[in-house]
Each structure stands twice: as structure tokens, then as C-alpha cells.
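User: Let's play a game. I give you a shape written as C-alpha cells, and you guess the letters that built it. Ready? Here's round one.
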């Protein structure tokens, strides 16, 4: 089988969130304006740039979502319990709205994202070697049907480490005793902290994540049972192999490449 070429950092940052071929997630007729590669950066003049302005109606009144009152928000800092600090950079505010530090996406507004500016997630890669093969726990996402790391959004005031544990427990575990989970969590090694090329990103709202690898080389997970829960439709061990093509959600292929490298497998 053909070796799947994983996206390189300079291009992966804005590919999925510039896709003009599909209608924007859960909207009826919102399509992104086409942004050529060379015009992604805000510094490049693009006089015809006038993308649709879309914020999903479903966000209105949701306790986990921002309001439309942008004057109240404290950008680039901890705003009450809401973390508006980007892992990447101090972002700019243009026309009262945060500006995506990675450039144009072909869509203004918040789309379906809860927060203006950075929306923080956390992604746990729980792994083992099985019959000499590197494997990690993957879920099938309920929303897009793609295979993914069982991650999720950081709640206001929540520590990222807690999010990692909560999401893994909710989406992939069928019960585990606290001691086993604690033992596994001690193995945590951070692989990535930054921007995600997520299909929901807009010019004013974007995903960021922290990816941590929990690698079990003591057989801690042998007795643990997995079950898809919350936003997951399925859960299973996925085997990493340089000869096989892994198609995953958002930037997760990039995170899996970093993870494989940590275990001396070069994809
Ligand atoms: C997902 C994470 C993902 C993040 C950015 C969240 O909804 O649960 O796994 O990394 O979005 O795409």
C-alpha cells in the first residue's frame, strides 16, 4: 500500500479550514471564500477578500459559549475562568474581534465554535506495543465519522491534565479503578501544544490543543475494558504502520506522526 504522506507543518496549519468544497459544518448554505495558499497571511494584500460572516444560531444562550457582546471580553488573558490566552501568540484584535494568527480561512464570525479567539482542547494518546506493533486508542467521532484521538474541550477553570483524563474516561473507558488510571497518567509526556487545522476554524475563532502521550509499557491496560461513550461512536486500538495510510480527524495525523517518532517509528 502507498505510504501516506503526512502533512508538513508549514502547510498543515491551514488546509482543512480552507476547504471550499463542503458546506460549513451544520450550516444550510455557508461556503468559505476561496483563499489561495499565497494569500493566507494577513500581511498579503487581498482586496477582494470579503468572506461570509457566520455565527451559528445554536450558540445563542449556551452556557459554554460566548455572547455577542465583545466589549466585555478580556482578550489574551484569563477572563474570569475562561482562558483566552493562545498557546501560540498574542493575537491581534481587528474590528473588535480576535484575528486568527495563522491567517485567512475564508469565513468570518465564530462558525460553530463556542469562543471567540482560541478554543482550547486536550488530546490524550494512550498507547502500547502489542505483538511488536505500536498501537493507540482511537475513537470514531459521532460528528464527522472520522477516526480520532479521544480528545475534547477544556472546561472553564479546568486544568488541562484533568481534561485529558475526563475525556479519555468519558469517550473510551468502560470503567477503570482510580489506581490504574493514576499509574497510567504518571507516564504522561507532552508532544504538542498549539494550533489545530480544524474544519470549524474561522478568521475570528480557532482550535488549539495540548497533546499528551500516556504509554503503557508495564501491561497496565491489559485488564482494562474500552467502550465508546459521549461523542464517540466506536473505540478501538489502531496500529501504527509506516506502510499503512491513516486518515484522521483535523490535525490528528500530525500528532500521530509526532507520537510515532517518540517511539522510533518514522511515518
Ligand atoms: C476534539 C479534539 C481536537 C480538537 C481540535 C475537539 O473537538 O475533541 O480531539 O483535537 O477539537 O480539532
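Assistant: Ready! My guess for every position:
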Amino acid at each position: 500500500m502507498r505510504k501516506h504522506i503526512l502533512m508538513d507543518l508549514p502547510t498543515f496549519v491551514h488546509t482543512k479550514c480552507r476547504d471550499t468544497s463542503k458546506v460549513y459544518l451544520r450550516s444550510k448554505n455557508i461556503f468559505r471564500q476561496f483563499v489561495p495558499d499565497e494569500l493566507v497571511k494577513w500581511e498579503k494584500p487581498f482586496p477582494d477578500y470579503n468572506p461570509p460572516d457566520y455565527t451559528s444560531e445554536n450558540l445563542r444562550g449556551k452556557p459554554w459559549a460566548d455572547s455577542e457582546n465583545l466589549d466585555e471580553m478580556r482578550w489574551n488573558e484569563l477572563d474570569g475562568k475562561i482562558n483566552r490566552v493562545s498557546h501560540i501568540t498574542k493575537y491581534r484584535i481587528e474590528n473588535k474581534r480576535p484575528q486568527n494568527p495563522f491567517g485567512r480561512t475564508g469565513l468570518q464570525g465564530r462558525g460553530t465554535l463556542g469562543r471567540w479567539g482560541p478554543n482550547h482542547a486536550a488530546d490524550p494518546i494512550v498507547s502500547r506495543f502489542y505483538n511488536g506493533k505500536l498501537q493507540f486508542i482511537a475513537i470514531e467521532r459521532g460528528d464527522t465519522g472520522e477516526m480520532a484521538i479521544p480528545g475534547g474541550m477544556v472546561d472553564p477553570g479546568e486544568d488541562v491534565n484533568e481534561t485529558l483524563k475526563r475525556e479519555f474516561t468519558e469517550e473510551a473507558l468502560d470503567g477503570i479503578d482510580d489506581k490504574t488510571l493514576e499509574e497510567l497518567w504518571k507516564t504522561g509526556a507532552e508532544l504538542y501544544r498549539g494550533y489545530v487545522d480544524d474544519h470549524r476554524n474561522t478568521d475570528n475563532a480557532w482550535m488549539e490543543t495540548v497533546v499528551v502521550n500516556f504509554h503503557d509499557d508495564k501491561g497496565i491496560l491489559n485488564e482494562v475494558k474500552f467502550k465508546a461513550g459521549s461523542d464517540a461512536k466506536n473505540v478501538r486500538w489502531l496500529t501504527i504502520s509506516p506502510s499503512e495510510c491513516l486518515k484522521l480527524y483535523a490535525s490528528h495525523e500530525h500528532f500521530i506522526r509526532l507520537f510515532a517518532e517518540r517511539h522510533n517509528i518514522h511515518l
